[in-house]
Design goal:
alpha+beta; Nucleoside Triphosphate Pyrophosphohydrolase; two-stranded antiparallel sheet; 5 strands; globular
Length: about 120
């Protein structure tokens, strides 16, 4: 997971380390790969898991979650300092507990995506 910088929308919040908008004439997969290169400095092969719509009083987003089966060493990533304060690995159980105890530390889109992921994987 990543700690965002003081950027617009969810400043200083925990979230997935790669994310962003789709540019005109770009597919969700192409956007994910572009964002990977921009935000962590490397592109991995990805697999689409699901899409969801997120609607709150703050924002409306269509979210697509991709994963990789490639083993990733966090030390090999180069987070963009304009986007990410730091990266840290957590287990699924640790994330569940952290969201339960201090949900305000998390971007609401990350919570919604994580909960959808849990529902799909159970």
């Amino acid at each position: 997971m990543a700690k965002r910088t003081n950027k617009f929308l969810y400043p200083n919040s925990l979230c997935f380390p790669v994310g962003g908008g789709i540019e005109k004439d770009e597919t969700a997969e192409a956007a994910a790969k572009r964002e990977m290169k921009e935000e962590i400095g490397i592109i991995f092969p990805i697999i689409k898991i699901f899409g969801l719509e997120f609607d709150s009083k703050e924002i409306y987003r269509k979210i697509t979650l991709f994963i990789t089966k490639k083993e990733i060493k966090i030390s090999g990533l180069k987070p963009d300092p304009d986007e990410i304060q730091y990266l840290k690995e957590f287990t699924i159980e640790e994330i569940k507990q952290m969201i339960k105890e201090i949900p305000e530390d998390w971007a609401s889109t990350a919570i919604a995506t994580f909960n959808e992921f849990l529902g799909k994987s159970e």
